Amino acid sequence: MIRANYHSHLVYCNHAVGHAEDYIKVALEHNFVALGISDHAPVLPCFMSQKDFERFGRYYRTMTLDTMYQGYLKEMALAKEKYKNKIKVLIGFETEYLPTNEFFVRLLRSKVDYLNLGVHIFNYKGQILNTYTDTNFETIYGYLEACIQGMETGVFNTLVHPDLFMYNYKDENGDRVFDAHCKKVSTAIIEAAIQNNVYLELNANGIFNSRNSKEWLYPYKEFWEIAAKYKDLKIIIGADAHKPEALVCEYVEMAERFAKKLGLKLQDLMEVNH
User: Fold this and answer.
1) CB neighbours (10 Å) of residue 168?
2) CA distance 183 to 229
3) Which of 1, 84, 179, 261 is buried deepest, with most CB atoms within 10 A?
């Protein structure tokens, strides 16, 4: 049973439920020693063209800047202080990385305890693409570039769901197959994580998101089989909880069993290195 989680979302991201205390109470019930909450940071129109911004409307309905300052950060600071003698509460953000938003990423890091890098969108040949729908044997290298450039900034502690590119990946025949391109990209991500002292997250919410699929969309077995070969890679399970009860649930347990079966060396607690 895990003793900590560093990937969870509050009501502020507009696709989760619950407030900080709701999550903290669940964590305390299950004897957690640490809880990191990392809601989605704002994605601002200045990061990209208006056309691209409108194209990915669902992914940009994150909190506003005003909500970030007056809602999320204030609530988290109060909760961290209130429960400081009971559990270690860390304030974080999950945010994208684009070259055009690096200034904002660095600002975010100055406001919180840590950052998670989540690549849901990426730049490929001047166009913003969606990891869930636009990843194929060519565009996957745009995803890789976003992951590596983000990690190389030195401000991200964890790359969450690093294998998200497999969600709807298409090879040269239009099939969802872990091909040579996927292997090359996976190896590069893993080696970059080691080089930049960044954790890779085994994402339990991906198992939940795969519940109606024939196989897991992510975590993807072939990615983690490669990861298992790197003994100096730091791997941590993330609930990616969008409701308080998801902190401790069957999908987290399934992720633990998956890791054990593959012989992955899991980190029990996360150190803030960036």
Assistant:
1) 15
2) 13
3) 179
Q: How far apart are CA 88 and CA 90, in angstroms?
A: 6
Q: Which two tokens stand for residue 26?
A: 């669940």
- Report angle CA 189, 16, 273 to the nearest 5 degrees: 40
Which residues, in sequence order, are CB contacts of 90 under 8 Å at separation 6+? 6, 34, 35, 36, 37, 80, 113, 114, 272
Global model pTM greater than 0.85: yes
Q: Please provide the size of the chain in residues.
A: 274
Q: What is the DSSP string of 164-214?
A: GGGSS-B-TTS-----HHHHHHHHHHHHHHHHTT-EEEEEHHHHHHTTTSS
Three-class SS state of 43: coil
- The encoded tokens of residue 4 equal 């900590």
118-131 pLDDT per residue, tens: 999 999 999 999 99
d(CA 154, CA 156): 6
